[in-house]
Model the fold of this input.
Amino acid sequence: MAQSAQATGPESFSILRLPDEPGRPEGLHDRHRLGADLAAIFSLALDRRVVIPNDFAIQFGQQIHFQSTAQVVDQTIQGPLPDDAKSLVATYILAIAGLPPDDQDCIGAACTAYHGAILLFDREPRAAYTLLVTGIELLSRRYGSPPTEWQDWESSSEWDAFFDIQALSGNQASAFRQRLLSDKHLRLGQTFRTYASTRPRDSFWDVSVDQWISGTDQETGVWLAPILASSKKVSDFVGTDRILFRQKLASSYQLRSSVVHESKWIELLTLGQPFVPDQPQRDALSFPIIRKLLAELLAVELFDRASPYCPPDFQLLRQI
Done:
């Protein structure tokens, strides 16, 4: 550990030895949790920002490279830039410039949540996932429609059955219904699920979910260009049934709440997108799918509400 108080760069030190538990193999889950727990203790004890990379070492001769295991959370975002990068950037800049101020505030806030998630996903995936859900909730609170009719609430039949079991009078049941519909938390959750499951365009199901893998040359140790390991669509993982999709959104909303209110620990592979389609027992949407959902909702609201705008020409320089 560097001892000079005048050091200009980050200080670092290495833990060379840790006690092992006999018979317990170390896996990806253990590596992630151990690093996170140690960093939390160090940050608390030292009153400093401490980062423990969740990486594994790859040695080629005298060279050692480190690759992050946390990249499994979202392998769709690590590919090369699209060929039409300039036109894509220009399209979004034009649309943002043509938004009314109130829409700029809301869409801009959701956009910064999206970017924050991208910055965090390989270091603190729980916080990154929470930002994505928050971004969708921001849009749903402004552009979604909260339920106003009892039959529009997805839990109404369950409550009606409960009222019958309790033998409530018509007036008593009606009073309970009005009270439940006015509950802010219930309205937020319902609005979130309804908005996020109905607002995406049909083309959203065909959005690509490409999974890229980065590696190094085994002889030279030089980093290679990303390799496309799998190319699928959103529908390959979550289907196209919007009702079932809404159920997954409910699980994602609950997952976010458990992180915010309980600091619940979430394994890397729980958030990552597997190479095979989602299994029935998988409830919440994976990080890549909910990230693409927020991007879709941002695009829908942005291009639906923007007025034509003509900016000065600009250049997007790209190194070949």
User: Anything to note?
Assistant: The chain has a mean pLDDT of 80.
